[in-house]
Amino acid sequence: MPDLDPAELAATVRRLAGIEEGNGPDDDHIVAGVLGFVERFDFWYARVMANAVHEYRKLIVARINPFIRSAELGHLGVADAARQLVGDYARRNFVTAGGWAMEELAIEASPRLHKSATRGIDAEWFDNDNNAHHLYVLKSGTVTRNSDILASLKRHGRQAEQLLRQGRNKPAIHVTYGILAGKRSSSFADGVERPASAALWAEILGMDEEPAIELATAMANAAGRLMTTGSAVRHISALETLVAAYIENPKEPEAVDWEFIARHNLRAKPTWAKEAAVRQERALAALAATGYEPEEPKPLKAPTDDPDDDVDA
């Protein structure tokens, strides 16, 4: 990350958001939110892409639909096709890492939220004025597994409530399922608050909805200017080399072997295993020729129990 002046960064964010000092989070929280986004994104995106180098056949080659992709990419040479296939994989993980980064930004920038040690809960805060404990599960966007996530949230919320009410001071418990972008209306059901995204940001940042959205957007914009993704670029290049070498037609250099891909992804392994071993050896030799040295695989446990998207790697 380039050197930066925290005061200048906070001033830039306020200028982008049109928000004066004294309104909303203080400068320290604004800077923490921006840097939290950058660090979380760079960490997870680079880690996922580095690990994918070891599993490129499972993660990329085995997921090629020979019917659809041959129609889409059949006019391309093997290098361009590999670049497209790897690019699609990278973009999916870019979005996933971005979702984790948004959750980090929300917690770090909030004057009231802090990370929760309770299983299944992302963040919490205690409202002294009303003797109320607020528990949150945060998601960056709308998801298809809402029912699973809500079932888990209810279970973990009940567990947390039992623990919190064991003492003399028995607080009210508010459980919130918060979607940071994409939810346009608020609702409440089965003991779970489900605020609209604008209302959620207002609660997180302690502001009215409109300036809260402007500030959150400005922090994400500032984070984007600081992100480099440089550590991931070399892993993406390595994946392109591996995939291109593996799917190349040995009888027609620089062409994709769609027939092999169809066998690989539609038929039992014994029918193509020997050929795959030759292709793997060729791919590893091509990668070694570039001077790339694979990193040791690292754990890919998501920062939350239920990330918005499964990590492809």
Structural summary, described in words:
The protein is built from eleven helices and eight strands. The protein is of the alpha/beta class and 313 residues long. A six-stranded mixed beta sheet has the order 1-2-3-4-6-5. Strands 7-8 form a two-stranded antiparallel ribbon. The longest helix has 32 residues. It is elongated, with a radius of gyration of 23 Å.
Query: Which sequence of strands runs across the widest sheet?
Result: 1-2-3-4-6-5
Q: What is the mean predicted local confidence, pLDDT?
A: 88
What Rg do the Cα atoms give? 23 Å
Number of helices: 11
Please identify the structural class as seen in this structure. Answer: alpha/beta
Amino- and carboxy-terminal Cα gap: 25 Å
Largest sheet: 6 strands, mixed
Question: Which quaternary structure do these chains form?
Answer: single chain
Specify the helix fraction band: 40-55%
Which labels suit this protein?
disordered C terminus, alpha/beta, six-stranded mixed beta sheet, single chain, 11 helices, two-stranded antiparallel ribbon, 313 residues
